[in-house]
Amino acid sequence: MVTHTLTDARNRHGEIFDEALAEPVLLTKNGRPTHVVLSGKLYETLWRRLKEAEYRAWGEAAMRALATSPRVGSEEFTAALKRLANAED
């Protein structure tokens, strides 16, 4: 990953944005990372992959919960819903 200081980014932002089209650019201040500049296409790709991973994790958690949770019949379930509904009145 290419690294530049924030001062470089301020003075040469056009060049740095061009670099970010090819690969992410790390910006630093006092030697510490502060920002990352990346292309819109890469951002969208990363965001999509993050959401897919999140959905996959939720799905796996739901499947684990389903596999380990006690199951009740439809009559008991309906009765429990009715009790909950009446408690809210």
Q: SSE layout and pairings?
A:
Blueprint: E1 2-5, H1 6-11, H2 13-22, E2 25-29, E3 32-37, H3 40-68, H4 74-87
Parallel strand pairs: 1-2
Antiparallel strand pairs: 2-3
Q: Which residues form runs of ≥5 with pLDDT under 50?
A: none
Question: What is the count of structural domains?
Answer: 2
Q: Compute the CA-based radius of gyration.
A: 25 Å
- In spatial order, strands of the major sheet run 1-2-3
Question: How much helical structure, as a percent, in the residues?
Answer: 55-70%
Number of strands: 3
Order of helices and strands: EHHEEHH
The overall pLDDT average reads 92
How would you characterize this protein structure?
Helix content is 66%, strand content 17%. By secondary structure, it is of the alpha+beta class. The chain folds into 2 domains: 2-38, YefM-like fold, CATH 3.40.1620; 42-87, no CATH class. A 3-stranded mixed β-sheet has the order 1-2-3.
